[in-house]
Design brief:
Shape of chain A: globular
Helix content of chain B: under 10%
Number of strands of chain B: 12
Distance between the termini of chain A: 30 Å
Number of strands of chain A: 11
Strand content of chain A: over 45%
Helix content of chain A: under 10%
Number of helices of chain B: 0
Largest sheet of chain A: 7 strands, mixed
Oligomer: heterodimer
Number of helices of chain A: 0
Distance between the termini of chain B: 41 Å
Structural class of chain B: mainly beta
Radius of gyration of chain B: 14 Å
Radius of gyration of chain A: 13 Å
Order of helices and strands of chain A: EEEEEEEEEEE
Shape of chain B: globular
Strand content of chain B: over 45%
Largest interface: A-B, 27 and 24 residues
Order of helices and strands of chain B: EEEEEEEEEEEE
Structural class of chain A: mainly beta
Chain lengths: 117, 115
């Protein structure tokens, strides 16, 4: 375990379902991130939270809705997804201020493998 | 604008031989550079990072990388490959831009280690 825990590890959902992905870190980090990893494409940054405030939203469709209730937890709420949303969703955290910084790397979770049918 | 190019999408080496994974970057300012490794069905793990200190950076599992500003490169090397090194490797550049740091990931290099 890296210190960043993602649940569930695998999720299969229909296009009309609503589900949520959960990410938890107890590393004392102040920034958290959602990334999408699709086959043969670079990692795509979706959302950035710093000190529980969303500081970046990279033109992500509204069917993805993030939530950060406290500095240790991050959620990604999913509804009416499309088959092309099938991917590995990675959560990461870092100790940075502002989000991102030269002397820190990210700690990633193991990801949630999402399949939309 | 910053970018990262990983020159090889796949690299195959025999166990016990050297590993070279190539990364070139473009950056308007002084970047920080990272290498991450991803094993199957796992998240990304930080291997090493360059943050304007020593240009030769040593990381975990015997990997190292050299920052060469004149060549805008940050290639990852290991003297002797092990079967457990088979994974995907990502080069990342971080740059301060408009008050925030942006992390740009390369497209990855899949390393195969042959017995």
């Amino acid at each position: 375990e890296t210190g960043v825990t993602q649940t569930p590890r695998h999720l299969v959902m229909g296009m009309t379902n609503k589900k949520s992905l959960k990410c938890e870190q107890h590393l004392g980090h102040n920034a958290m991130y959602w990334y999408k990893q699709s086959a043969k494409k670079p990692l795509e940054l979706m959302f950035v939270y710093s000190l529980e405030e969303r500081v970046e939203n990279n033109s992500v469709p509204s069917r993805f809705s993030p939530e950060c209730p406290n500095s240790s937890h991050l959620f990604l709420h999913l509804h009416t997804l499309q088959p092309e949303d099938s991917a590995l969703y990675l959560c990461a955290s870092s100790q940075d201020a502002p989000p991102g910084g030269p002397n820190y790397g990210y700690t990633f979770g193991s990801g949630t493998r999402l399949t939309v049918v | 604008a910053q970018s990262v190019t990983q020159l090889d999408s796949h690299v195959s080496v025999s166990e016990g031989t050297p590993v070279l994974l190539r990364c070139n970057y473009s950056s308007s300012y002084s970047p920080s550079l990272f290498w991450y490794v991803q094993h199957p069905n796992k998240g990304l793990q930080l291997l090493l990072k360059y943050t304007s200190a020593a240009t030769l950076v040593k990381g975990i599992n015997g990997f190292e990388a050299e920052f060469k500003k004149s060549e805008t490169s940050f290639h990852l090397t290991k003297p002797s490959a092990h079967m457990s090194d088979a994974a995907e490797y990502f080069c990342v550049v971080s740059e301060l831009n408009s008050g925030t740091y942006k992390y740009i990931f390369g497209t990855g290099t899949r390393l195969k280690v042959l017995a």
